[in-house]
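tool_call predict_complex ligand=nicotinamide-adenine-dinucleotide
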Amino acid sequence: MKVGVIGTGGMGNVHARHYKNIHGVELFAWDRDADKLGAFSKQHEATKATSYDDLLSQVDLVDICLPTPLHVDAVLQAIEAGVATLVEKPMARRLAECQTMIEAAKAKGVQLGVGHVVRFFPEHRRVHNLVLEGSIGNPASCRMRRGGKAPLGSEGWFRDPEQSGGVMLDLAIHDYDWMRWTFGEVKQVFAKSVRLGKTVSGAKFEGDYALTTLTFESGVVGHSEATWMDPAGFRSTLEVSGSEGIVEYDSRSAPSVRVSTDSQLAIASQMDGADDPYFLHLSAVVSAVRTGSPMPITGEEGMKAVAIAEAAIVSAMENRPVDPRELLKKALES
Ligand SMILES: NC(=O)c1ccc[n+]([C@@H]2O[C@H](COP(=O)([O-])OP(=O)(O)OC[C@H]3O[C@@H](n4cnc5c(N)ncnc54)[C@H](O)[C@@H]3O)[C@@H](O)[C@H]2O)c1
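tool_result ok
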């Protein structure tokens, strides 16, 4: 299996480390930055391509780890070349671009997957399964928090909301996707954002924080907090309350997952550090390409996550609730 990575920055390097541990994978790479490409190919024993076209001509699967605004063109070029494609989350900067990618992949019969790796975090998967198994009865509410220091990225693209979409599209989308995967479709989003609301002024970098309330078709109420204003470093937390108990996760606690019900005071569970989510996700992607089966997280799933994020952005900017299903409908009709 020949795998090509385009974008040898932060995520390209994370992915490459894990591809090397997947049996039978041979790595290829392309980046416009010759120094980064050189260091990457040395570190991961990857063959350097001379252009993106050259990369596509050599591989069975391409993994797009470019800044978000560049996803759409890179995906369309890969599909045109008939190469199975994995694109990092968020699938695209704009919802309409997701639809263009999905249609192109369908027309060409090319597999298209999106890197919503949080579904492969063992703790998040465990909580998802506990909820679906009914361990806490009927779920009623979910609270998720994700954040850390503001990332920079090459040439500071993360800190330009026009490019990254800010915390809602770039960071909270992990939790929007996890909640949608666990509780089903979202019927209303209401968001408040420090950056978009311009309530913090005067600072060179204003910081970015967003609070989103999601109402699911099932009646579950979700609450997502995302921040790039936490100098203490990365932390994610998750709490689901149901009719018979509560399940909680905190990335800074050990054990990180706890379930409490009336009948059982607390079941604590410590995950195995060997279950690396990136390895699990990329292994599933490689296996889907080998067998010709659908990608573990399809383009359609990636698009629905972008619809929630776009609804949150519109909500924060216009101070009104937004139905992401309406945005999806518009994008599908356009
Ligand atoms: N799944 C996750 O947990 C996670 C975490 C961080 C970032 N991401 C996503 O991964 C993607 C990449 O983020 P990153 O942190 O790796 O960014 P980055 O800035 O660290 O890396 C991007 C790389 O792309 C290269 N590049 C830029 N333009 C190019 C072009 N036209 N042709 C070839 N190479 C080009 C840059 O030189 C750089 O090496 C983003 O969509 C981001 O949102 C996902």
